[in-house]
Amino acid sequence: MCTKEVEEKLIPAMKKTLLEYFGEDPKNSPDFGRILNNRHFKRLLSLTKKGTIVIGGDHEEETNYIAPTVITNVKPTDPIMQEEIFGPLFPVITVDGPDDAIDIINSKDKPLTLNVYSKKNSVVKKFLDNTSSGSVCINDSIVNLSIDALPFGGVGKSGIGAYHGRYSFDTFSHKKAVLVRNYAMLGEKLGEARYPPYSPSKEKYLRRLLKKRPNIIPQHMDYVAVFVGGFLAAVILKVILHFAGVKYF
């Protein structure tokens, strides 16, 4: 999706790039593949019936060849926008701006990956804040899949869970909660309010007990504890060495 102004620059740039990649005739390029089988060849060909083909469009059924094809004047309701393409077809939808594009994205199932191309941080942030997708790749595509430190997975119909490194284990693991009741007298006394007969005082006590409390432990407290512990250890060691008459520097 892009504005009409961007489309007028995009199409010539794509023509130039495809020429650099595959030459005048992609069919004879050793770097351009073929569709897996005839069924998918026909499926892809049927997706080119709506819109205007501005680049490519050539095909050969005998070899399941479809040239790199760019299609403009595509509508969000066209067949090519209703399924994953998995082929050399590039539909272009013209939008008025980022808000229009976001509305179209949010009107459909959540994508596996959202690719946003913009030099404006405000535009990128708008897409990040107002859309939901498995992942987002800014000013590039696919490379996010190659980075094993990033989780890769979908949302809703585009997939559940994520993989790569630790994320793969988390996806196929279940965090099982275990609570062991303590039958100590104090615990039993505090828990009496759970049982009938109920009273306003019991209700008040339970509400106070179940009320969510703010986290009173400061952030990064573990680092502070390590620092304080190390400092105290150094002081104690210094005192011991002093009384032991050991010289230190």
UniProtKB/TrEMBL annotation:
Going by the UniProt record, its keywords in alphabetical order are: Membrane, Oxidoreductase, Transmembrane, Transmembrane helix
A Gene Ontology biological process noted in the UniProt record is:
aldehyde metabolic process
Q: Which residues form the Aldehyde dehydrogenase domain?
A: 4-178
Question: Mind telling me which residue stretches traverse the membrane in this protein?
Answer: 223-244
Instruction: Kindly provide the name given to this protein in its UniProt entry.
Output: Aldehyde dehydrogenase family 3 member B1
The family annotation for this protein states:
Belongs to the aldehyde dehydrogenase family.
Species: Caerostris darwini
Q: Which GO terms describe its cellular component?
A: cytoplasm
InterPro entries, A to Z: Ald_DH/histidinol_DH, Ald_DH_C, Ald_DH_N, Aldehyde_DH_dom, Aldehyde_DH_NAD(P)
Gene3D superfamilies given in the database record: Aldehyde Dehydrogenase, Chain A, domain 1, Aldehyde Dehydrogenase, Chain A, domain 2
Task: Tell me one Pfam family matched here.
Answer: Aldedh
Gene this chain is encoded by: Aldh3b1
- Which molecular function GO terms apply here? aldehyde dehydrogenase (NAD+) activity
